[in-house]
Predict the structure.
Amino acid sequence: MMIQAIIGALLIGLVLSVLGSGGSILTVPVLLYLIGMQPQLAIASSLCIVGAISLISSMGFIKHKKVSWPHVLLFGLPGMAGTYLGAWLSSFFSSDIQLTVFVILMLIGAVMMWRNQSSRYQAGKLNIAKILSQGLAVGVVTGFVGVGGGFLIVPALVLLGGIEMSLAIGTSLLIISMNSLVGFAKYYSLLSSKGFEFDWSIIAIMIAGGLVGSIAGQWINQYLPKAVLQKIFAVFLVLMALFIVTKSII
């Protein structure tokens, strides 16, 4: 199990570093099918792993002043409230419903990766009402299915928040960490009260492996075109979504 955790963590960190997003959407399938966790524990553990990796990764952006703190508050505070709400809502739905929503998100992520529009986003005018509502919505999704939502946060920050791409990545990482860790705290409370036990050794290995994978991804980034990698990952997401659907049916 430890070997599977290390391999999965390296893959997650690699994808996150090379593509700028998408790594967190692999965390739940890795925990489910490589590690063998129960669905609700996998979703909760994913939030802890994604939150920790994003927080540590954001430190470099903070150091180089590549984070917009007003946008962290504008998007992050409603996002934290939404994540708490999403985690609370999860207690009223079966894990099958959560996985169905997760598969839909994987397919949306695949389409966005395939279209490769991230480099074409142009900063729009700040729309406070929309960015607050978008932050809340992304937070609910994060809490409900355990994904960071970077592929939704970055375009929202640029198009609705009016900031440049150079600031959007670091700002997004900090928002993801805030949302994810709040969501994990709620899940921990809910699941612990039901007698679920978290595998902290697996969580620690996944966090450490994810950070190592992100370093390797920075090296790969120098030699392989990002557009090609995004299309490969888009196909991989579709195949993974089909795999989850098949496993759920069987």
